[in-house]
């Protein structure tokens, strides 16, 4: 069977769990770009990503998935743009309880689709929310242009849930997404 490399990018606001997700998936093999967080107003956590986090995952069907985690801070939006330009799939992570979650998610999805290579975008609800809240978010999001995309949910700290998410997005990628 042909061996393919599929690149996926994790995007979303500061502190949503992009680095945590890659750590869950790849453990000590994850390559992180963490530095002390000097913007505690934006998020109280101790470290934040500059550059790109990276992890590689072997999927059941012999495909390799490369996962890149973007910095969430807006000052590094050029890094996100560059990562998206290399990717075939994107996961937009969101806490649907955040103010402006809908608008921010829609803006990120639209940015993803501006990247010529990018073929699949899914939204990942990454904080606990009821089924009704998730349903309402999904319906409202689908009213934004280009935003009728699959909406999944998973805890970034949970390796099994993150693997399931990656399996779904990998299965949606067409075969010609070889590197
Ligand atoms: N309470 C709670 N915390 C969570 C949950 N999911 C992730 N976290 C925590 O949220 C934090 C996420 O931090 P990071 O993984 O560094 O976030 P990031 O998206 O990489 O952030 P930047 O790189 O700064 O953009 C970690 O401390 C996680 O343990 C959750 O469902 N509930
Ligand atoms: Mg990070």
From TrEMBL:
Keywords: Receptor
Membrane-crossing residue ranges in chain numbering: none
Gene3D superfamilies per UniProt: P-loop containing nucleotide triphosphate hydrolases
Pfam families registered for this protein in UniProt: Ras
Coiled coil start-end: none
InterPro entries in UniProt: Gliding_Motility_GTPase, P-loop_NTPase, Small_GTPase
Name under which the protein is recorded: Signal recognition particle receptor subunit beta
Organism: Comamonas odontotermitis
């Amino acid at each position: 069977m042909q061996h393919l490399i599929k690149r996926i990018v994790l995007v979303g606001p500061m502190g949503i769990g992009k680095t945590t997700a890659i750590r869950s998936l790849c453990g000590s093999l994850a390559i992180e770009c963490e530095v002390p967080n000097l913007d505690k107003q934006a998020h109280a956590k101790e470290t934040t990503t500059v550059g790109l986090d990276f992890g590689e995952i072997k999927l059941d069907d012999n495909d390799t998935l490369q996962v890149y985690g973007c910095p969430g801070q807006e000052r590094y939006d050029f890094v996100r743009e560059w990562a998206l330009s290399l990717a075939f799939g994107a996961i937009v992570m969101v806490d649907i309880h955040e103010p402006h979650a809908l608008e921010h998610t829609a803006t990120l999805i639209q940015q993803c689709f501006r990247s010529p290579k990018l073929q699949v975008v899914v939204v990942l609800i990454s904080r606990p929310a009821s089924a009704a809240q998730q349903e309402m978010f999904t319906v409202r999001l689908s009213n934004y242009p280009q935003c009728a995309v699959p909406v999944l949910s998973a805890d970034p700290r949970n390796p099994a849930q993150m693997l399931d998410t990656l399996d779904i997005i990998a299965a949606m990628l067409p075969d010609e997404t070889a590197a």
